[in-house]
Amino acid sequence: MSIFSKKDTKKKKRITKTFSYYLHLLNFFVGIGFFLFVVWYGAFLYTHFYQAIVESEIIVVLRQQVAVSQINYPKFLQVLEKIKQKRAIPLLSPVGMNNPFTKQTLPTKVPLKAP
Questions:
Q1: Residue 70 lies in a domain
Q2: Which pTM was predicted?
């Protein structure tokens, strides 16, 4: 009789198949994990390095294009005050309004005089 019987080889093949299945499954999840890591790393680099470099370049360009003339600040404040006055909603005065809660008398009819 041989050292390995047919039972042992079948059992060995079955173990190898299940091991192979789990190895393929592990490779799949490792691949997915690696892909997600690469996407996360790319987003991290974009937000923390690339955008910072672009914003600093924009600031440099804007500093070169600063307006040379100065703003007349008192005149600017006057214009802002006029705009605020124009946009302000006027409050209604209650002096000329009728009060609906008081008894009001109707004017009496004046008799017409015959000619």
A1: yes
A2: 0.41
Q: Is the sign of the CA dihedral 22, 27, 32, 33 positive or negative?
A: positive
pLDDT, one tens digit per residue, over 85-106 is 888 877 776 666 777 777 767 6
Tell me, yes or no, whether 79 lies in a domain: yes
Q: Into how many domains does the chain fold?
A: 1
| Model pLDDT for residues 35-91, shown as the tens digit of each residue | 999 999 999 999 888 888 888 888 888 888 776 677 888 999 999 999 998 888 777
Q: Are 100 and 94 in contact (CB under 8 A)?
A: no
Is residue 105 situated within a structural domain?
no
CA distance 100 to 92: 16
